[in-house]
Give the backbone structure.
Amino acid sequence: MANTEQLIMQRLGETGIRYSAGRKALIRALSKADGPRSAAELYEDLGRTIPLSSLYRSLAILDKTEVLSPHHGVKGVTRYELAEWLTGHHHHLVCISCGTVDDITPPPDLEADLESVVKSLTSSGRFFPRGHALEIEGICSECA
Ligand SMILES: [Zn+2]
Ligand SMILES: [Zn+2]
């Protein structure tokens, strides 16, 4: 995490954005989370210490500087997570009942299988893949 924070500070420094205490707390909460979190979820994660309006603003700014990645979930809720250049490549389990999103990192052999599926699906040469994201929809243990 210390290293992640250094990378974030560097990125924000380059773009002239202040790494305020609030943003630090926001980044810490996201790095502790099991997956992408919405502004409302982060508001609760942070014990309602940061006003929702400033959470929205910080999320938008950190998204623009590519420190965070948006996840557009079920029911039109946008959740954010630390970008993959900070945390590593992974996929998502999405609960179709409550909307919670959990990260899942497949073992390397399965990730290689996914890569070859992507290659096969785009073998026409008319589309040039730069990445992929697998969304598995289902019911989480809380909702089951
Ligand atoms: Zn659920
Ligand atoms: Zn994720």
User: Anything to note?
Assistant: The chain has a mean pLDDT of 94.
